[in-house]
Design a protein that fits this description.
CATH superfamily of the domain at 5-151: NAD(P)-binding Rossmann-like Domain
Shape: globular
Strand order of the largest sheet: 4-3-2-1-5-6-7
CATH topology of the domain at 5-151: Rossmann fold
Bound molecules: NADPH dihydro-nicotinamide-adenine-dinucleotide phosphate, magnesium ion
Largest sheet: 7 strands, parallel
CATH class of the domain at 5-151: Alpha Beta
Helix content: 40-55%
Structural class: alpha/beta
Oligomer: single chain
């Protein structure tokens, strides 16, 4: 795809959204912004839309629309303003755009990402929660509608780059030939060396202080608990049709090796780079070409020693819970993700202790196991179980 691409960024005001705009602005000859969406930061959305000449902005409600209008610079031609969740999904499917960056955080990003896949777009998928909650549905939509799926999560982008040629775009139904295992790297987050007993009084700011990456607050907490890596194991399962027992997690504190693919002949291929999301974003926007991303070259001599270690599941119970959920099935994955979103939001708001996050998730998984099984064939089914889990989890362990 080397023709000009018009891009819709769902979640433009977030960390991934900002990095995407940065890369697009470097390539005015081949990339342009069609639409931008935001949830609360209307001032920033107005700045972004003015700077990128977006044709469309999508906001959640009429109050947000008012705030956007108030923030819009006088004298500039106003973009079309669309309002509400349906408008967001419609924009993802809009014939006027070619590529959709799915960068909303949480299961809230699922309807837009799915709409883009159903419309056969090039989908740049950052929103891992969409795959965790609805992997089968989403991958089927990619297959049925000829969408092009490019993983943006750095580990999955690394794996994608290390996969055999000819096995790259789309949605595979079985593991790539010759591939034995996927090795996902994880920094271990800010509490890698902490005694689990000492984490009782951890504050949101401490948990969000990631040693290597700068990210939104929810994924930063997920990285500290390593539930993020658990979500990524589930994401890798769907993206690469790989069973849980052939996906391994490795602690790699330097975040230089972004992930690895092990082949039957013993070869292990890795992708390396600076911990800067503009690299996978530029890869997704440019594929199959390589675009300048603004990321400085990796200086391996300066990086020095690269370490790898097995994660300690006692220290990171959330990672074990995610493997359990993947083995257990889609309902468990929905419950895992929804309970985590509720728990992390409560922690960030100062209403739940850090050490309660795995307990809330474990309780939700137990609750889900005890229910009679429900069908999960449609977006509505998935969203219903997601909502029920949130209702169940809402008050667990609150301070
Ligand atoms: P941020 O919190 O920085 O940004 C989230 C974006 O989603 C914002 O634009 C926000 O709008 C919007 N948003 C939040 N809630 C809703 C909602 N209910 N409905 C619609 N829009 C909403 O997150 P990140 O950019 O860090 O992460 C985005 C996704 O990418 C996540 O799924 C994350 O796991 C994944 N990811 C992120 C990485 C990173 O480096 N940041 C790396 C790999 C994956 P507003 O700000 O206006 O409220
Ligand atoms: Mg990642």
């Amino acid at each position: 795809m080397s023709r000009f691409q018009r891009v819709a960024i769902l979640g433009a005001t977030g960390s991934i959204g900002e990095s995407t705009l940065d890369v697009i602005a470097r390539h005015p000859d081949r990339l342009g912004v069609y639409a931008l969406s935001a949830h609360s930061r209307m001032d920033r959305l107005a700045e972004q839309a003015a700077a990128s000449n977006a044709a469309v902005v999508v906001v959640p409600d009429t109050a947000a629309r008012q705030r956007f209008l108030a923030a819009w610079p006088t004298g500039r031609a106003m973009p079309e303003i669309r309002v509400g969740a349906q408008a967001l999904a419609d924009t993802a499917a809009d014939p006027a755009c070619d590529t959709v960056m799915a960068a909303i955080v949480g299961a809230a990003g699922l309807p837009g990402a799915l709409a883009a896949a159903q419309a056969g777009k090039r989908v740049l998928l950052a929103n891992k929660e969409a795959l965790v909650a609805a992997g089968a549905l989403f991958m089927q939509a990619v297959r049925d509608n000829g969408a092009e799926l490019l993983p943006i999560d750095s580990e999955h982008n690394a794996i994608f780059q290390c996969m055999p040629r000819g096995d790259r775009a789309g949605a595979p139904t079985e593991p790539a030939r010759g591939v034995r295992r996927l090795l996902l790297t994880a920094s271990g987050g800010p509490f890698r060396r902490h005694d689990p007993q000492d984490l009782h009084d951890v504050t949101p700011d401490q948990a969000c202080k990631h040693p290597n990456w700068s990210m939104g607050r929810k994924i930063s907490v997920d990285s500290a608990t390593m539930l993020n890596k658990g979500l990524e194991v589930i994401e890798a399962h769907w993206l690469f049709a790989m069973p849980a027992e052939r996906i391994e997690v490795l602690i790699h504190p330097q975040s230089v090796v972004h992930s690895l693919v092990e082949y039957d002949d013993g070869s292990v291929l890795a992708q390396l780079g600076q911990p800067d999301m503009r690299t996978p974003i530029a890869y997704g926007l440019g594929f199959p070409d390589r675009l300048a991303s603004g990321v400085s070259p990796l200086d391996l001599a300066k990086a020095g020693c690269l370490e790898f270690d097995k994660p300690d599941l006692n220290r990171f119970p959330c990672l074990a819970l995610a493997f359990d959920a993947l083995r257990s099935g889609q309902g468990a994955c929905i419950a895992l993700n929804a309970a985590n979103e509720v728990a992390v939001a409560a922690f960030l708001a100062g209403r739940l202790r850090y050490t309660w996050i795995p307990r809330v998730i474990a309780a939700a998984l137990e609750w889900q196991q005890q229910r009679s099984s429900v069908t999960l064939d449609s977006l509505a089914d998935v969203l219903a179980l997601d909502a029920e889990t949130r209702a169940y989890t809402g008050n667990l362990g609150l301070a």
